[in-house]
Amino acid sequence: MASLQKLATLIAGTTSLISLQLFGLLSSPQIPFFRHSKNFNFLAPASAQPNSPNLTLSDRVGNEPLKADGTQQLRQLPTPAIKQYVPPIKPNPRRSQGSGSRGCDQSLSGDLLTLLIPSKDYVGQTTSGYPTFFWYLSQPVSVPIKFTLVEPGVPRPLFEKHIDSPQVGMTQVELPSDRAELATGKVYIWSVTLLCNSRRPSANPRLMSSIERVPTTPQLEQQLAQVTSDSNSPAHTLRDRSLVYARSGIWYNALAEISKAQMADPSDRSLSETLLALLDQVGLTQVTAQERQRLAKN
Question: Topology of domain 97-213, per CATH?
Answer without folding.
Answer: Immunoglobulin-like (2.60.40)
